[in-house]
Every structure is written in structure tokens, then in C-alpha cells.
Amino acid sequence: MDGFKVVLTDQVFPDTVIEQEILGAAGGTLVVAAGEREEVLAAAADADAVLTTYFPLPKEDIERLGRCRVIARYGIGVDNVDVAAAVERGIVVTNVPDYCVEEVGTHALAMVLALLRRLPAGHAEVLAGGWGVANLRPMLRPSEVTLGLVGYGRIARQLAVGARALGMRVVVHDPYLEAAPPEGVELVDLPTLLEQSDAVSLHCPLTDATRGLIGAEQLAMMRPHAVLVNTSRGPLVRFDDLVTALREGRIGGAGLDVFETEPPVASALHGVPGLLATPHVAFYSEAATRESQRKAATQIVKALAGEPVDYPVRPQP
What is the pTM of this model? Predict the structure, then answer.
């Protein structure tokens, strides 16, 4: 293993001290690529491993990675990597699916509660010189709320714990769920979830099957006071359809930490009633960042040593 090269395609963290320590101790060198896309790919052409966050790696670019044996993504989703093309070339793909479960689950719950309690609208009411609840109705008691979770992985389960502690009814739609949900969590189809929920929170990977999962047809199934929260992947929601539904008052609100295009055009967000937006930060805490760096670098060391990795990613069926 001595002398292996790891290229980091897009550096988004404050530093790479953790990665350098882990990779250096195993005999490797970390190269932080810079410049335009072609320069990054040129730097990675002879790399034994690639570290990536958002940098797209489609099939044609993976085929240029002549020595690569592992592509490690810092985050959870791997929609920026053509996993099938990598696996076909014998390249192991890994992610870090458990590094920010607390953070995203809490962020999603905070958005649900802020929207149901009409906090953004209440803030605007006070700034406009208004007072009282007249313009903020309706509001539900937490124990009257049905929360619908689309997808039931680690983060959704974390959110469900908080919601149930507040007395909420939790319903779940997840066609890939292998184990039965715990007692008190109901499994339903997507139309039923949309029709019954006061708040809907998305927790799906971005695949061909889930792209545009929530559009005009699905929004029309939701209750007029219901809110939609997306802390997962932006393209799960057809943004223009959502904005239309909000402007027409067909749903009560939406909390978005992710968007179809990032960053979104700011002007498209102005004056949209019931919209609460954050800049793709649900994953973040200092501890989560460090965990992601440590675990991603560790997967590279394991893969190059011929050991089983902790988080292998396989092509979607």
C-alpha cells in the first residue's frame, strides 16, 4: 500500500487534517485538486483512490480513472457518481450513511414544527405591525398531527422518535423497507400518506424512480393546511409545481433545505407564501463534519488494503 495517491476532487471542509493523518499513517498522499473540471480529472487519472463530495463522476469520466480502486463520497447520497460504471470497472464505491443522522433528523423536525406553528408567518406578522393569531390560523395541537415519512432509513427513524415523543401519529411509505416498522408507526402507500398527513417529510435517495416524486399531482393530494419538508435531495420535488401550490394556497407551507438547482435563483423564492428555506445545511455540525472526514478516509484505507469496507454502495436495481 505504501505510496498510494488519493485525489480530493472538491474540497468543502475547513481543512483536510483528518484525512491527511489517516491516509498518511497508511502510507498514502492526499492531493487536493484545484482548477477547472479537466484539471481535476487530469489530477485523478493516476490516483489509486478518489475522495468526492459534489463533483460529478459520470461513466465517461470514471473510465478515465486508470488506477482507481475506490471512490469514497463524504456524504450519504451518491447520485453524483455512476455507481454501476464504477462497479463494472472493479472500483469500490463507498459513502458515509450514518454521519449526520442526528443533525438532519433534528433539522427536519425543526422545519415541521416551525411550519405547523406558523413561525415564519408569525415573524412576518409582527414585522408588519400586526398582532394576534387571526392571520395565522389554523394551527394543530401536536398530538393531533399526522406526520408522513416518505422513506424510512436512519434519518427518518430519528425524526420519528422526536415526532412520537410529541404525540404525533407517524405513517410511513417505503417500498424498499425490509423490516417492519416499530409499533406505533404505520406503513401506507404514497397516496394514502399524502391524503392523511398534516406534515410530509422526504427521506429518499435520488434515483430514476424518485426524481420528481412530488409534483403537481401529488401536491393536489395533500390537505390545504399540510406542509412539505425536504432535507433529502432537491430533485425529489418539482420546485415550480411546489411554488404554484404555495402561491395558490393549495398547501399550507414548505420547508426546503435542498433544491432542484443549487443554489436556487434567489428571486424565485421572494414572496412565496409559506416557504421556509435553508442553504443545504441540515447535515452540518462540527462533529458531523469530522465524522464524515474520518469515515470517508478510513474506507479508502480499508479498500486499498483489500479489507471489506464498512459502507459499500451497490448499483440501484
Answer: 0.93
